[in-house]
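Human: If only I could read backbone structure tokens as easily as an amino acid sequence. Take your time, and here it is.
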Amino acid sequence: MAAPRSPLSRLFTVLLAGVLAGLVLAVAALPGNLLLGLTARSALGSYAALPASLKTPATPQRSYLYANDGKTLITTFYDVNRTDVPLSEIAPVMRQAIVAAEDRRFYDHGGADLRGLARALVANVKGGGTEQGGSTLTMQYVRNVLKTDPTRTAEERAAATDPTVGRKIQEIRYASALDKSLGKDEILDRYLNIAYFGSGAYGIAAASQRYFGKPPAQLTLGESALLAGLVQSPDAYSPISGDKDEAVARRSYVLDSMVATNAITAAQAAQAKAEPLALHPTAQPNGCTAVSQGHDDWGYFCDYLRQWWLTQPAFGATVAEREQALRSGGYTVVTSLDPKIQATAQQQATKVYSYDNKRALPIAAVQPGTGRVLAMAVNRHYSLADNPAGQANYPNTVNPLISGGASVDGYQAGSTFKLFTMLAALESGRTLSTGFDAPAKLPTRYPAEGPGSCDGHWCPANANPDWMDGYRMMWDGFGRSVNTYFVWLAEQVGQDKVVQMAQRLGITFRADSDAAFAKNNAANWGSFTLGVAATTPLDLANAYATVAAEGTYCTPVPVVSVTGADGTKVPVGQPSCKRVLDVDVARAATDAARCPVGQQSAFGQCNGGTATGVNDILDGRPVAGKTGSSEQNSTETFVGFTPQVAVAGIAANPDDPADSVGSAVQTKVIDAVARVIATAVKGQPQKAFVAPSHELAGDAHRPVQRPTVPNREKDPTDENPRSALQRWLDRRG
């Protein structure tokens, strides 16, 4: 690539002129055909001896991230803004323009144009005018490959542009070898995909998008001439960051050259010269903080994908190699992000809390049976922008508030953890009919002091005694979220079994104190069933998705497919699933989880729920779920699921766990999560949950009609739940 020459470059020209002086004199007198033969013989190039990068270029290319439709661009990653395209996808006038601008004899010489080089040397030695380079497109291609080859050292890349006679002669030899082994179109294609066009655009695809916002196949004559003119001095001629007048003048030069090569007529050139400089600059997003305008909420999913990518050996042996692969490997990544579900989740998160509210509602949606993450939303901008004074993480942050990690341990999810106690109990052989006369307060064996203790022992209480106390089974214990029932049940099963169940379903203890308790003292973690351990919406949604998938746990994954720059599918992103629950156990837990959301179990045992409005939002579609309120309502949680999707949302203050969000927000959280589920299943066939076996239903496996009790209200027709059950047993004989 030609460029304004430095004093050192001029010295190099004089030296090369001296070395090749005899050749210059001889060349002037030789006929064209003989000259071409001399070129081929004197270059002494061997294709086999070429560096591997010249045979198979390792040019860095940007990677693209798309939503699950394969069309909606999320962002790109790159160190060098480049995307290779085949010659067939480059406008013919662009191919003609670059030849006319940089190497008119491209189709006539053997890779190194000795006649052109001699003419340039003579002109430069004489001086008195613009210096000429004499490098062919093939020689420029060689130089560009060697100076950008990521497999070479920094010193080797720098040597590719050294102003020495030896380097120039090597460049001529390499160009000659390439010309003998590759067709002219192949060389032209490679050149157009590596040349620098200024303003950060490498290759014709990036340049066409950068300057005109279109693919290179759609370039007009005037646009092609402008771009072809840039490669001689990309920064100086750039109409975006350089001199527009110089860019226009250079365009005219290229058009005149195209007339000289008979590529176009003089009339066509005149018409193109008269066209105004109609630029449409388009900046290519780079990284998660540069996602599409108006969609900065996608940044949280993007960051989650990037963290996942850095753990995949398919992209390199080390984290650094995987990062480099993402930024230069030219991958096409179709992610699992569903734009419609994401849009609803973001709308609902910001409906509950505004962007500048210190409290947050992170929401995650997961597909049961695959683990694919469908949405990650929160009322924050994914941005490195400064926040107003006194505001730590709002409205802007890049912390993983939805997935956890880094400085985010998660949030208490309250009674949603009762699911793990129920599963452990069912797995141990207990049935859904397991009954207990749940008191308002339950003295336990765990030592405790303070307001929550009874005679020196931890003494959990029910939040609404009138509605919760009395004889309960798993169905109504779960539906009404009866604390004392589930603490009692966990004691029967063993707290360590409950903790292990949570871990089996993917709950990760990111807080050091939680991890230590789980490892060293799980058997005495009495309050675990009440959701005192920190978790995240993503972990929670995926745990419930495991139940929705009838006991199949799938590792969360953010991609559908990854394709390399050469079109080869990379073997990553396929669902990684395993059975962690017996099918019947999962079905039994789902049957009880119908109670909280205002639906009925297969055995007619639901008699009240804490989120009955969900049934109305889903129009009666089979759904299950659970609410969770942590102590003093510091957080409010709801997780719901159908066979097709599981969604969790946790209202919390990420910066201050002591800031209670209050019970009033619970209905809003329930509504938000339910509406995300509604969007996810819209248009999908309605799927019913499969009822559990009579064995796991237990004594209540025969259907019984019970009045449905409104949300958190006492059933006026059932003053004594225990006596009502006794009457039912009497009727059974």
About this structure: Residues 30 and 483 are 99 Å apart (CA to CA).
